[in-house]
Amino acid sequence: MQDILVLYHSHRGSVRALAERIACGIESVGGAQARLRTVPRVSSVCEAVEPAIPDTGAPYVELADLDECSALALGSPVRFGNMAAPMKYFWDSSIAAWQNGTLAGKPACVFTSSASQHGGNEATLLSMTLPLLHHGMLVMGLPFTEPELSATTSGGTPYGVSHVAGPDGNPQLSADESRLAFIQGQRLALLTRKLNHS
Predict the structure, then answer these.
(1) Is residue 9 within a helix (H) or strand (E), and if so which, with residue range?
(2) Of 30, 109, 167, 196, which is the most buried if we count CB atoms within 10 A?
């Protein structure tokens, strides 16, 4: 059984919905298992701390998860064309994994959600690939051979699946977004299996 880490930060539930759908795609491939993890929030108040275990959703990620995973799907909401601070904070703390080559040669993909159609989805997806490339990961996207990528009027992109939540933060995925998230997870699992069998 190959563990594929689905690591995300979600503010209002949209990125979590994508993560769960990607996990379904991963687990549709025989021998693949999704490991859902999240990151704690960060605060500008030095005394503020998050609970040791999240109230809802996935457990917090540990650096051991990076070592134990065969692949990684990374998700964050859009923050001015970049990943959210909690996710950036986690990657800033991954120096030991970078030095040890923990993630080198492992496949990865990225996903995101924004409030508006042109809210910085593609820039965020590209910015999330930067630490993954520095870690030596093999980043994959979504090909235009997937018809939903050309048909969608909401989220999509060849860089990774995305969701447009609207100003009210609706986490409900459109049919195209849901299908693309499933496909992205499935493709990641299939690529992982191919790499590990060669």
Answers:
(1) none
(2) 109
> Which tokens in the block code for residue 27?
């687990």
| Tokens, residue 52 | 């040791």
Backbone φ, ψ for residue 73 (5° rounding): -115, 125
Q: 69: which 2 tokens?
A: 């995973």
pLDDT tens track, the chain, 198 positions = 899 999 999 999 999 999 999 999 999 999 999 999 999 988 777 666 777 778 788 999 999 999 999 999 999 999 999 999 999 999 999 999 999 999 999 999 999 999 998 899 999 999 999 999 999 999 999 999 999 999 998 989 999 999 999 989 999 999 999 999 999 999 999 999 999 886
Determine the Cα–Cα distance for residues 24 and 29; give it in Å rounded to an integer.
9
d(CA 171, CA 165): 6
> Which amino acid makes up residue 85?
A
What amino acid is encoded at 32 in this protein? A
User: Could you tell me if 69 and 104 are in contact, meaning their C-beta atoms sit under 8 angstroms apart?
Assistant: no
What is the Cα 151 distance to its own chain's centre? 23
Q: Cα–Cα distance between 52 and 190 in angstroms, integer?
A: 34
Query: Between the CA atoms of 141, 184, 188 and 107, what dihedral angle is there, to the nearest 10 degrees?
Result: 30
Q: At 28, which amino acid appears?
A: S
Q: What's the N-to-C CA distance of the chain in angstroms?
A: 16
In whole angstroms, give the CA distance from residue 93 to residue 111.
21
